[in-house]
């Protein structure tokens, strides 16, 4: 296995991980920002006010994008398993 192949595999793994995590992270970021602005404007500092909407939004994103994320992860795994004979010599 050459360094180029190793770097390419690592690059693909990072990209797949980023594509799987990005919708969840962006959703949490946007909801946290909106609720933080509302808390600052109203003066309400309640922990559950930020926690519950984030959890509900994450569940919604998982329900909406879970199948495509699973497909992406499965395709990456199959690609990695298929190149094992070429890499190990």
Walk me through what this model shows.
- By secondary structure, the protein is mainly alpha-helical.
- The protein has one domain.
- The protein has three helices and no strands.
- The chain has helices at residues 3-42, 47-82, 84-87.
Count of helices?
3
* Rg over CA atoms: 19 Å
Largest sheet, in brief, is: none
State mean pLDDT (0 to 100 scale): 92
Oligomer: single chain
Helix content: over 70%
The helix-strand sequence is HHH
What keyword list fits this structure?
mainly alpha
Brief sketch in words of this structure:
With 89 residues, the protein is mainly α. It has helices at residues 3-42, 47-82, 84-87.
List the helices and strands and how they pair.
Elements: H1 3-42, H2 47-82, H3 84-87
Helix pairs in contact: 1-2
